[in-house]
Amino acid sequence: MLAIFLRIRRFAFPRATMVSSKTQNMKTPTLSAHQFRKALGHFATGVTVVTVERAPGSVRGMTANSFTSVSLDPLLILICVEKRAAILPLLEKKKQFGVSVLKEGHEAISEYFSKGAPSAEAEQRLSIHYRWTPSGIPVLEGTLLQLSCEVVASHLAGDHTIFVGKVAEAEIHDGRPLLYFGGEYRHMARRPAATT
Ligand SMILES: Cc1cc2nc3c(=O)[nH]c(=O)nc-3n(C[C@H](O)[C@H](O)[C@H](O)COP(=O)(O)O)c2cc1C
Question: What's the 84 CA to ligand 1 centre distance in angstroms?
Fold first, then answer.
């Protein structure tokens, strides 16, 4: 039955009656976690690295594509962090974080920050350099967009915590984004010039 669903690429989800922070025990009986991840992989995203200062001058980062803009007034964004992620207690404690949007060619940086275990040697090899914003939040130099945020709300949602961040500073740079689709890194293609 599920194989048929997969072939026609249409999934039936149980009707959600309410979206709230009390969804820890919510089950989706028609889909396994693997199938759900595969389905959601059909939504193309950029790739960010979320950063928190864990000790003076020392940074913990995590690759995240759950980054979303939320509000213009006030300026709000959100990220979702898995309950086992090493960065989670730091986010809860520091209540501020950076978001750096990766560029094309930053695949190895994305992989590094998705593998846990920080390493000074790897950061040197990958030319990872941090910049501290005026509000004292670390972000990654050389990225497309760097935001510093203060946590204004957090919500438990299943096995993730949603952190809503109020944006204090933003710095934008030229370049092309690294994309993520179907579990793979992608590059943005230019639309071919219109022929007359
Ligand atoms: C492209 C990509 C996007 C990811 N997005 C998220 C995310 O939004 N939230 C999250 O909790 N983990 C996300 N992850 C997984 C984390 O990066 C990874 O589990 C974590 O860094 C593992 O290390 P840690 O447990 O030591 O923190 C993503 C991984 C990749 C490769």
Answer: 10
